[in-house]
Write a structure and sequence with these properties.
Layout (H helix, E strand, L loop, with lengths): L16 H10 L4 E4 L5 E4 L1 H7 L11 H6 L12 H5 L5 E8 L5 E12 L5 E10 L1 H23 L3 E6 L4 E4 L3 H5 L19 H12 L3 E9 L5 E13 L2 E11 L1 H54 L6 H25 L7 E5 H17 L2 E7 L6 E5 H19 L2 E10 L5 E7 L6 H4 L19 H11 L3 E8 L2 E8 L5 H14 L6
Parallel strand pairs: 12-14
Antiparallel strand pairs: 1-2, 1-5, 3-4, 4-5, 6-7, 6-10, 8-9, 9-10, 11-13, 14-15, 15-17, 16-17
Bound molecules: adenosine-5'-diphosphate.
Length: 517
């Protein structure tokens, strides 16, 4: 074997010559033995092969010449040799360079002190480990990880992975905007804690029972601050080799969608309501036509009979009752005509705050005897709208009267006007009455819906309001209603609504039925 060894290998005198040479020659890892002055005393065959060097290009040369082909020692800041000579263990350097094929080579160069029997450091063993492949794998793994993490974070929804006990192992960045938690804060929580009444645990039960993914289930989750929000959940098991090892959930925030759905529903309700009211309007106009003439007849003949009887005649009292009831019927006919918009229309530029003020002034007398506090909170600037003064006044008279009725003489009415962020001119009439029961909310704008006792309400007030506001291309809604009271919100556009203009032209152009109104 010894003839295979390079003749020039120098052996420290303390080491047995043959053993040392053989050992070094066959070391599978490229290795050098360096003297205390950095000269190469021995090089393994694997080292010479790795770098394509011959013995005489290595032996007796300083290590920096062998490694870096330079004649200057490496800078003290990077050279680990002195530390190794002081007996430090586990020292290494990383070398990176491109080989002749242009491939990046990464080497870990380890330095270990070598001592004699007295423990004195007599040299340093320098071995080279090629970690290029490991580095490449590490880089591509971290690139893959980064790609996955970008993908998961770009997904529209909270992606959450949990173990089979529900302990959260991973959650993407959407945890913050949707749930209010930083992802790290969720790592010591369970998936079940994210939903009220353990809804998500129930879904996991469905997952168990169905043995397939749970898709698009609408439920709720609880935000960090305690608020519950509507979400859609997809849930599935994470499998490894066919065995479930965890649960994967995708939680989609439905807040925006629910808002849009609500708007759509209310718009749909408005259309249905408008259609229904249009039909009822035509019917109301017909009924008013038919009633007007007999009512005039009853009034005329009642007056004739009253005049033909002495004032103290016992029938006079009954005739007064008849006249009063006829008056009530006339009021109803007037309301019906308002509702079916058969009255005349005059368009003009109005200040919405003024219209509300005028309406209140007209019924103010009714409130004086009551314990009502009236507060006005009008916009500081005029709120110009195009509309019919009489009709719009009627709108606010009806709303304020209803507010007064609701409070039964004791409470606070607030009238507020402002311009909203879409440029609509708004008026709110609020009261501190008992509120509208939820089962009545959909009905209050329907004609003849009333909860007032007979003689007190016809159920036409809000349907007239609805009709007038719709004709002005505005919007009326119950903004809120509960035990603290009710707020009606009227919003009107600034410009003249086309439909109203057409209507006014038609009516004022002489097409109005003279027998009505
Ligand atoms: P009427 O006043 O003749 O009953 P409306 O159409 O004006 O007819 O009102 C219909 C119903 O809506 C009322 O009978 C009442 O039940 C309810 N309502 C209207 N405004 C209010 C209010 N501010 N507070 C509570 N309920 C109200």
């Amino acid at each position: 074997m010894s003839e295979l060894l390079p003749a020039e290998v120098l052996v420290p005198s303390e080491l047995p010559d043959a053993t040392f040479r053989r050992l070094f020659h066959f070391l599978p890892i490229p290795t050098l033995f360096l003297s205390p002055d950095k000269r190469v005393l021995a090089a393994s065959r694997s080292f010479l092969e790795r770098y394509g060097l011959a013995d005489d290009q290595v032996l007796e040369r300083p290590c920096y010449e062998v490694f870096h082909r330079g004649n200057q020692p490496c800078p003290a800041s990077v050279c680990r040799f002195p530390a190794a000579m002081q007996g430090h263990q586990g020292l290494y350097n990383i070398h990176q360079y491109r080989n002749s094929l242009g491939r990046l080579v990464v080497e870990e160069v380890h330095l270990s002190p070598c001592t004699d029997q007295q423990g004195r450091v007599i040299g340093v063993i320098e071995s080279v480990r090629d970690i290029s492949e490991a580095k490449r794998l590490e880089n591509s793994l971290s690139e893959t990880n980064e790609l996955f993490s970008c993908l998961l974070n770009s997904m529209l929804g909270v992606v959450v992975a949990a173990d089979l006990q529900g302990r959260i192992l991973f959650v993407n960045h959407n945890a913050k905007p949707v749930l209010g938690y930083e992802p790290e804060e969720l790592l010591d929580k369970t998936l079940w804690e994210l939903s009220p009444h353990e809804e998500l645990k129930r879904l996991r039960g469905i997952l168990d029972a169905s043995r397939g993914p749970v898709r698009g289930v609408r439920t709720q989750v609880t935000k960090k601050e305690g608020e519950t929000i509507p979400v859609k959940v997809n849930l599935n098991y994470i499998h490894r080799n066919g065995v479930p090892i965890g649960t994967l959930g995708i939680i989609t925030d439905l807040r925006e969608m629910v808002k849009i759905e609500r708007h759509l529903n209310s718009a749909r309700m408005q259309v249905v309501q408008s259609d229904k009211l249009a039909v009822l309007g035509r019917m109301a106009a017909g009924v008013a036509h038919e009633l007007n003439n007999p009512l005039t007849g009853i009034t005329v003949y009642t007056d004739l009979v009253r005049e033909s009887l002495p004032p103290d005649h016992p029938a006079q009292q009954d005739l007064t009752f008849i006249a009063e009831d006829v008056d009530r019927c006339r009021d109803i006919v007037r309301d019906l005509l308002d509702y079916s918009r058969q009255g005349s229309i005059e368009l003009e530029t109005l200040d919405l705050s003024k219209v509300v003020e005028e309406a209140y002034a007209l019924i103010r007398a009714d409130s004086l005897s009551l314990h009502l506090k009236v507060i006005t909170d009008f916009a500081s600037q005029p709120l110009p709208i195009q509309g019919d003064r009489k009709l719009l006044r009627q709108v606010f008279i009806n709303l304020i009267s209803n507010a007064m009725d609701a409070m039964e003489g004791d409470g606070k009415i607030t009238m507020r006007t402002y311009e909203d962020d879409r440029g609509m001119r708004c008026a709110e009439i609020s009261d501190t009455g008992p509120g509208i029961p939820s089962e009545h909310l959909a009905k209050v704008f329907e004609p003849f819906f009333t909860t007032k006792e007979p003689g007190k309400g016809t159920g036409l007030g809000l349907s007239v309001v609805f009709g007038v506001i719709a004709r002005h291309e505005g919007h009326i809604s119950v903004k809120e209603s509960g035990p603290q009271g009710t707020t009606f919100l009227v919003s009107l556009p600034a410009s003249a609504p086309k439909t109203l203009q057409d209507f006014a032209d038609k009516i004022n152009g002489g097409e109005e039925d003279e027998t009505i109104g």
